[in-house]
Amino acid sequence: MKVCIIGQGYIGLPTAALFTRNHCEVVGVDVNEEIVNKLNKGIIHIEEPGISEIIKNAVHNKVYKASLTPEKADAFIITVPTPYIIENYSCDLSYVVSACESILPYLEKGNTVIIESTIAPMSTDETIKPIFEKAGFVIGKDLYLAHCPERVLPGKILKELVHNDRIIGGITPECSKKAREVYGQFVEGNIMLTEAKTAELSKCMENTFRDVNIALANELAKICAEIGVNALDVIKMANKHPRVNLHSPGPGVGGHCLAIDPYFIYAKAPETAKIIKLARDTNNSMPDFVCENVKKIISKGKIAIFGVSYKGNTGDDRESPAYEIIAKLKQDGFDIAIHDPHIKNDNYLSFDEATKDADLILILCDHNEFKYLNYSLISKNMKKPIIFDTKNIINEVPKEITLYNYGNLYELYNQNDV
User: Fold this and answer.
1) Is 300 a residue of the active site?
2) Which one, of 206, 181, 200, lies nearest residue 191 by Cα?
């Protein structure tokens, strides 16, 4: 089987790697010429375990190549971004539409087209299907169209693409069956067949469920800080209940899923989806909450930002709340030094450089490197060492270091009330 995958990012490239590992020929299409050139040399541009070796071997064995343009294939998979439109929170399908139009000259009867990008409910039926019908194809008879959303965790993408259950939503039952044949090349989890609109809403609702539950934890953190209770202790105790699983509060929600997908549902029914919108507003308020508490800890000076990735132990910084926090702190006059061992950036500093003469270490990501810090170097570099851990990953510190997290933020409020 030959597969043409449009988009070679965090989903498209791992998917391409798995197809090549299972005896398929793959053409990976991307609009970024630099990325295409690197991939054709076996050099990947994302941090994800296991992919580099597979792509290198695939390029060497001539079963994978990157290209700026599509080619004829048996199956076409669209994995391009779907941001939301700020004005009304609706799904921006422009990249998906452009990708679909780009493959039209290469389509043949009997091909399968799969939209893997996360899209709003009814998008496949109302927007995507007409593109191919206008080109003369009869969906379900001579072209098979389906929406097949991914479910992956950064850092474990290859494993989860293989072993997680897969939803396949076809425009017709025959479309679902043809898409199942495509994913059957490597998926070992259950493959569940349904309608396209059901698959679309299921994917959006999975991430909305998580976003709402994170918002509940974040709201609890705010309440506890206000009334003088240890939020982390409350969560720990509540989770002793056999049917309760409160999440951990944080600096906000990032990533290409949780920070965006709930809006796709809200935009479809804004008068009804009130909980969904309130959860989004709550999570979007956390950068302000972090900055307010930073200013309670120090009024001026240098802040060492530890981590801008939205997800620990990855270099994925899409929609990361860290950037909003950094911008707000700069606007408030703080000197910012950024340290993130998982992101390559010439402006980012080493651990030593970032902490040198810093007045505060602000942890915004739960990289493993931040769970076990070099406290002796921190004490040496900082006159009055203070850490604000918004990810609640540090359990204890030496007595000469002051630690704030969502367990003891209320102490700051008590101080300011005196």
Assistant:
1) no
2) 181
